[in-house]
């Protein structure tokens, strides 16, 4: 699995969103080019819950519009696990398995945000090396 460069500002923004949404899950989209994520796009969830989320369609469309207008793509999505690990759950595997899209998961279980990146491949999530960049 090729490493993905993620701007430190993206990691900080996603972690802050997760902390601010707790005890519920947060969600959003990840914008960038090729093997780099350079912007997080916070989304509102239509389902406020500590173990579920549903990205508001308007937020998704807005992110797509901005990405296209700036020569980027939506590389994937992020969400938090307020009480669970930074690893895809069974629900994530059932609902988020979309080939080619990255999934960033933020765990708040130990009180400190922990971020991991995954990609759906061969019918399961595989960890993707995340390289923080300025």
What's the tally of helices?
3
Widest sheet: strand ordering = 7-6-5-4-2-3-1-8
Rg over alpha carbons? 13 Å
Low-confidence stretches: none
Tell me the total number of β-strands: 8
Instruction: Give the name of the CATH superfamily.
Output: Cytidine Deaminase, domain 2
Helix content: 25-40%
First CA to last CA: what distance? 22 Å
Largest sheet: 8 strands, mixed
For the record, the count of structural domains works out to: 1
Mean pLDDT: 95
List keywords for this structure.
alpha/beta, Cytidine Deaminase, domain 2, eight-stranded mixed beta sheet, globular
Structure in words:
25% of the residues lie in helices and 38% in strands. It has an eight-stranded mixed β-sheet with strand order 7-6-5-4-2-3-1-8. It is globular, with a radius of gyration of 13 Å. The chain has helices spanning 8-21, 57-69, 90-96, and strands spanning 4-7, 27-33, 36-43, 73-81, 102-107, 114-121, 124-128, 130-133. The mean pLDDT is 95. The protein starts with a strand and ends with a strand. The protein has one domain (4-109, 124-133): Cytidine Deaminase, domain 2. The chain contains three helices and eight strands; from the N terminus they run E-H-E-E-H-E-H-E-E-E-E. It has 134 residues and is α/β, with parallel strands linked by helices.
Q: What is this entry, summarized?
A:
With 134 residues, the protein is an alpha/beta fold.
């Amino acid at each position: 699995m090729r490493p993905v460069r993620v701007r430190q500002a993206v990691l900080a923004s996603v972690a802050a969103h997760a902390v601010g949404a707790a005890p519920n899950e947060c969600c959003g989209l990840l914008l960038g080019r090729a093997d780099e994520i350079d912007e997080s796009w916070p989304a509102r969830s239509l389902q406020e819950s500590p173990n579920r989320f549903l990205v508001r369609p308007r937020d998704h469309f807005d992110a797509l519009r901005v990405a296209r207008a700036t020569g980027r793509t939506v590389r994937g999505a992020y969400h938090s696990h307020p009480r669970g690990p930074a690893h895809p759950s069974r629900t994530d595997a059932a609902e988020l398995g979309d080939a080619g899209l990255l999934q960033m998961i933020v765990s708040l279980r130990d009180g400190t945000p922990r971020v991991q990146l995954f990609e759906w491949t061969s019918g399961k999530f595989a960890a993707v090396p995340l390289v923080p960049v300025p």
